[in-house]
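Below is a complete specimen:
___
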Amino acid sequence: MGNALLGTAMHNIEITRGRGVQLARAAGAVAKLIAKEGKSATLRLPSGEVRLVSQNCLATVGQVGNVGVNQKSLGRAGSKCWLGKRPIVRGVVMNPMDHPHGGGEGKAPIGRKKPTTPWGYPALGRRTSKRKKI
């Protein structure tokens, strides 16, 4: 990575030399080299995170292939079934014993101040990881 020019698109990036590739591996993923200082390089990852890695780390120049893999329409429910994907059922249409949003007569509201997961944890809009200081 130390020989790459600023602005280079890359994928399959190591965090620590010799540990194996860990960053930007998914289909269509690409990270951008935005700065180099001393022995470290600054990358903008596909998630938007800006991260420091060692310039000794290995990376592959370019973008990962198979970009549109998730945009292919499967056409019908049976095709998803063949891939082992289960149907997604909304909590509102379940019974109260199956989900905190369940029950009620007709199109009833959730019945709580905020949406929850089936296990009662906060969902939809609640942050799940601590904010990291930069």
In short: The chain is about 5% helix and 20% strand. The mean pLDDT is 93. The first strand starts at residue 9 and ends at 11. Helices lie at 77-82.
